[in-house]
Amino acid sequence: MMSKKPVRIYFLCIQNRCRSQIAEAFAKHYGKDNVIAESAGLEASDIHPLTVEVMKEVGIDISNQTSKKIDMKTFLASNVIVKLCENLVERCPVVPFGITNVQWNILDPLEHSEGNLEALRKNRDEIEKKVIELLKGMNVPV
Prior knowledge:
about 140 residues; globular
């Protein structure tokens, strides 16, 4: 049986310190070799320690992931671009024809709830569900 090429997914948010990092980690976790997942922000910042902590709770270690700025080569090579926040809509590069453009409006828990761990867990679980749905929708075995 011919193996098909992995799906390239690029998760974007403003700072690449929380939501897009969580999405990237879940996509790698569930998609395994069928997915090449990366994430980036309009600006790079440090991954928030609470982001690492809430992922550790579900057995995923992201402590060596780094925060990155959007890279246009990666952007254009992606099959799917997932934008994880409202205010990215105005500032994100336009997704070219032929690339699936997905918009998830997920509030930044670090900004909207002062880094409340409970809010981060809720976000993490919501992102996990959305990632699984996204992969299933692309016929990626999860």
